[in-house]
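User: Can you predict the 3D structure for this chain?
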Amino acid sequence: MSTSLDEAKKYLEAAFRTSSIMKTMGMTLTYDSEGNATVLMPRHAGFDHGMRDTHGGVLATMLDSAGWFTVAARCRKMVVTADLHVRMLQGAKQQDLAATAQMVRGGSKLAIAEMRLTAPDGQLVATGTASFSILGDLAI
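Assistant: Here is the predicted structure, written as structure tokens:
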């Protein structure tokens, strides 16, 4: 029996909530009706680099997470990030952040996502693209 999008989203949201890194970073996950993920993170000075703004590694983690959860839901499969490209466009300016993703290609072995990281005022902070290897069915 095939997994529905709603079943996949519910399973992935539960997995996200129990993830140690997501708890540590204070991130939350939501999905739109098509299975595109949004990862939100409130401002946290504990993740700053030496110039007192959010470290680029945190930005990359948010982009990767949004892409991963989008592809896993849309494909209804367990995936692993195979390749991640991040473009830092400007500092986060000590703001809350939101990473969104859309799957641009899905195949039987590989899927591609595009991600955007924005501040509350709509300013684009970073973009990313990623490929995800498809491993197998979700363990629902």
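The chain has one domain: 5-137. The CA atoms of residues 116 and 127 lie 5 Å apart.
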